[in-house]
């Protein structure tokens, strides 16, 4: 049975068509019952039963939290907070134009933090 999350995340990325660093490709794979998008082997986005999460720098996460466009990421109620991730509000899934800049920020963040090694 195909993983619905992999299919949905792949479809989202295909609709958004985010820019990636030259020579870098996005790969979507199953991830703990959901799906994760990888850039050069590093996760930048995930889609699970709790929603769509993006790996972002602290300043961007705080801006999203303050605007109530995202909340802290937890996989279940008493789980630790995934500190580098923002769980995006469902409003961001309504159209590619709204989520695209945030996906590209996440890609840029992961590319910059993994460039050394």
Q: How is this structure best summarized?
A:
The protein is of the alpha+beta class. The protein contains 3 helices and 6 strands; from the N terminus they run αββββαββα. The chain has one domain: YgaC/TfoX-N like chaperone (Yope Regulator, Chain: A, 2-Layer Sandwich), CATH 3.30.1460.30.
Q: N-to-C SSE series? A: HEEEEHEEH
Distance between the termini: 36 Å
Q: Could you say how many structural domains there are in total?
A: 1
The CATH architecture can be named as 2-Layer Sandwich
Oligomerization state:
single chain
> So what's the CATH class?
Alpha Beta
Low-confidence stretches: none
Radius of gyration: 13 Å
> What is the overall shape?
globular
Task: Determine the strand fraction and express it as a percent band.
Answer: 25-35%
CATH homologous superfamily classification = YgaC/TfoX-N like chaperone
Helix content range of the residues, please? 25-40%
Described by strand count, sense and barrel closure, the largest sheet is: 6 strands, antiparallel
Helix tally equals 3
Structural class: alpha+beta
Strand ordering within the main sheet: 1-2-3-4-6-5
What value does the average pLDDT take? 91
């Amino acid at each position: 049975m195909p993983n619905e999350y992999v299919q949905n995340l792949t479809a989202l990325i295909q609709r958004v068509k985010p820019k990636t660093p030259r020579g870098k490709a996005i790969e979507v794979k199953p991830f703990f019952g959901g799906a994760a998008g990888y850039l050069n082997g590093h996760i930048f986005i995930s889609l699970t039963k709790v929603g769509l999460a993006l790996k972002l720098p602290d300043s961007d996460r705080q801006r999203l939290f303050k605007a109530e466009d995202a909340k802290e990421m937890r996989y279940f109620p008493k789980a630790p907070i995934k500190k580098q991730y923002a769980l995006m509000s469902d409003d961001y899934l309504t159209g590619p134009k709204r989520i695209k800049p945030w996906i590209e920020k996440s890609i840029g963040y992961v590319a910059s933090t993994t460039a050394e090694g």
